[in-house]
Design a protein that fits this description.
Helices cover 51% and strands 14% of the residues. By secondary structure, it is of the alpha/beta class. The longest helix is centred in the last third of the chain and has 23 residues.
Length: 271
């Protein structure tokens, strides 16, 4: 949690927007995941959202579903994901790692045991898609006690009461899902996103990240001028699956570097 707070504080002082790529742990193979994360950091990622593969997702579009299927087919589970974080931490003690997934694997492991293992591994934040804030107070407290940020989703249809709840119990940042639907779906209306972010900021003091639907430099720039973070998942996974596994890290990092450069141009203009 401290790494997340420190990262956003530094970026805010520098007038820059955070770039947070999402990848699914174990895709395209368990051996590639840690080198892939390192490559994304070298390409300009400020934090990493690491997906926990799950067989029955509710918010993931076909691209991320395929990534989960590839990972699950290789036997990757939550314990393996935590092992990957541990391995990453042996060489990088600064970049925040946020796990993103669903309740079932965490509850199967046991929430307290998961919290202890996540802290030992060096996890900084956790997003559980099917834990709404109204039903996650105990889990959030469990994470906070272990200095792990409970991070919650907001959407175009989120009511005011839920925004307030996220502002009260969330830590690290809040994740605004910019589209109605699943990851990678639809066309992003940047004017709608900008208006919604202004509404959310009246009720949530946390940094705001925006994801779902950011696929290119132009969209990233448009959102970066108003958000604290840009989150990109499906488009990166498309780069990963576009060729052999041994070249996945290089392909993903090369594409992310173009987004880093585009987002930093927004910061330079603002400065």
């Amino acid at each position: 949690m401290k790494r997340i707070d420190a990262t956003f504080a530094k970026l805010r002082a520098d007038g820059r927007t955070a770039l947070i790529p999402y990848v699914t742990a174990g895709d395209p193979s368990p051996a590639v995941t840690v080198p892939l994360i390192h490559a994304l950091v070298a390409a300009g990622a400020d934090a990493i959202e690491l997906g926990v593969p799950f067989s029955d997702p509710m918010a993931d579009g076909p691209v991320i579903q395929r990534a989960s299927e590839r990972s699950l087919a290789q036997g990757v589970g939550l314990a393996d994901v935590l092992g990957m974080v541990t391995a990453f931490r042996s060489a990088d003690t600064a970049t925040p790692i946020v796990l993103m997934g669903y309740a079932n694997p965490i509850e199967a492991m046991g929430t307290e045991f998961f919290g202890d293992r996540a802290r030992q591994a060096g996890v900084d934040g956790v997003i559980v898609v099917d834990y709404p804030p109204e039903e996650a107070r105990e889990f959030a407290a469990l994470l906070i006690a272990r200095e792990i940020a409970p991070i919650f989703l907001l959407s175009p249809t989120t009511p005011e009461a839920r925004m307030i709840a996220v502002g009260r119990i969330g830590r690290g940042y809040a994740y605004y899902v910019s589209l109605k639907g699943v990851t990678g779906a639809g066309h992003l209306d940047t004017s709608d996103v900008i208006a919604k972010l202004a509404e959310i900021r009246k009720r949530v003091a946390l940094p705001l990240g925006v994801g779902f639907g950011i696929r290119d430099a132009a969209t990233a720039q448009a959102i970066a001028a108003h958000a604290d973070a840009i989150v990109i998942g499906s488009r990166i996974i498309q780069e990963i699956e576009a060729g052999p596994a041994e070249g996945a890290a290089k392909r993903a990092a090369a594409w992310l570097a173009t987004i880093r450069a585009a987002v930093d141009q927004v910061a330079k203009r603002a400065a």
